[in-house]
Amino acid sequence: MTSLTQLATVDVMPPSEAYDFEYFRARVDAELLLGSIAIRVFRIPLLAVPAGRTRRGGWFGVDNLAIALAVRDVLAPVGGFPDLRITWRGAPHNSYAVEWGERPPARWSDDDERLAFYGLTRPAPSRSHAPSSAVSGCSPAAP
User: Which one of 59-68, 84-93, 117-126 scores highest in mean pLDDT?
Assistant: First the structure.
């Protein structure tokens, strides 16, 4: 009989090969980045950053239970990923998440609280010449 985890294949890669490595490198403690791993599901490797130091918890989102189980199995023997659990997220779209570390609050009071929980900082402002709409906050991508 074939188990669900045998149906899902995930690959472990060096952290620097993760699609979102630069995002985390600009925002997370450098020592935590050293303990992270890239996990490739299908074609795109994404970073799993361990909990510890300034980071109280983390998560890795996936689309189905078989992949969630496979990601959990990959993280289980790696240090820095305590209390691994699979949760269901209904927003922004229906998906599973493999979570580790402390459980996040049901609601965030603001974005700063969320960033602090995950040990993230805002990147230093770029000195590039951004269009005036992006600087003023009129851009659809502005936070």
Answer: 59-68
pLDDT value, residue 20: 96
For the CA atoms of 135, 136, 140, 143, the dihedral, rounded to the nearest 10 degrees, stands at 80
What contacts 127, CB < 8 A, 6 or more positions away?
none
In the chain, the amino acid numbered 21 is: F
What single letter denotes the amino acid at residue 74?
Answer: V
What does the alpha-carbon distance between residue 82 and residue 102 come to, in Å, rounded to a whole number? Answer: 8
Q: Which two tokens mark 141?
A: 């991508």
Do the Cβ atoms of 47 and 37 come closer than 8 Å? Answer: yes
Scored b (16 or more CB within 10 A) or e, 130-139 reads: eeeeeeeeee
Which of these, 69, 10, 8, lies nearest to 39 by C-alpha position?
A: 10
Give the residues across from 37 on adjacent strands: 48
